[in-house]
Give the backbone structure.
Amino acid sequence: MKQNPTFLDNFFFKSRILIKNRKRIMYSSASGILLGMMVNTMSSPELSKSFSAIFNNIFQVQNRPLNYLSWISLSMITIIPLAEMLLRFHYKKRRLESLFQNLLKNRIDQEIIQFSDGRITIGSSLTLQQTPEIIEGWKVNEIGIFFDSKRFEIPKVRLENYKEYYKANYTLKGFDNDGTKFMIIKKPWSCTDSPNLKIELQECNYSQVQFYKDIIVPKEKENLIKTIFNDLSISFPHSICLHLIIVTRDRKVLTTLRSPEVGYYPNKWSVSVEEQLNKNDFVDGPENVIKRWLKRLLEEEIGIDESDYNISNFRLLSLFLESEIMNCSLCGLVKLEISSEELKKILQAKPKKDKEFTKCIFLSYSELKKEFLQFKNDFLIPSNDYHPSSIYRIFMTLLHKYGPISIINEIWKKNNNSVKQKLNVYKKSIVTGNEAKPM
């Protein structure tokens, strides 16, 4: 599908979200009205003698205008499932997400562009599993994280190379502290009919992650990615990480400058912070892993506690691949109960256990949109100064906030304006005699 989303697309999408968010209220209201009518009718001996008398008392509108509510309620109960089915069919047929590959093709790394069809892909970040409803996201109680007691082992054919790498990099990479990391072993699955997310993990070592990143991935990246989608298995060691977008009460997004001392992407701007999974996050069972993980991240990285946020305001938006380093990560968003000014004071006053960033700024949603579109040279941070997954996180935040239709239209307009500008430059060059090919 190449054409721009239509008015109907926008209407249908908003209708679908409205029904999803209000379905329970509409069902309970309609059922309550019909049940109340039924109880009143059945309590009267005169009216409960026959089915026709019952029906007329509830649905006869002549001289009984209140009974219009009965028909409205009955219509809601019967039409909502049909409307959901039709809207879902339209949404799948249009495959609006598949437009992103065409609209964003200039912003997708060539190494992974072959895998981007129907998957949100920005730069080196490739979505492995998106939430069925991007505006809704997965809630904490819809996420289960489990790990197998069996540890990852280097295949025999690579064992000698691994031992040589381990020995050569023992001091340089700090393998004297070869800690435990967690890798996803299966590509999870989630859809509208089965919305919960189950993530299966296995333990591996830091040295194994580094060996694959430095030695195996540069040679076998394409085959490793193909295995994810063809076999639904993730065979390479990595360290699952939560990339968290933090939104304050006044709708500002925390953006941080990573410390020059961090191992990955020093001196890059991040939206907002990242934290790897820890074994201690499993102490309360698989259904509470994400809750403990989030709590630890916010305490260690930001210096805030549970009084500053509500866990019900956390949403997981996607599982994605950082293809540059072949790391599987989670993209999540949490809305705080404190303002950007309050958070700024906390960051300035409270000592943090981890000092992974040195500066911070707060961006509004409109500024985020400008950062993503990156045009007219009025953006705050150039794309090449961002952590590789930050533009992806910005995009997921905008999708969560505005929905795909709005963002697709914004990109479409920006692309069209860019093409018009290039054509105008080309026409002017012809008039002035300084002809040049359009870019």
Remarks:
- Residues 7-94 form one domain.
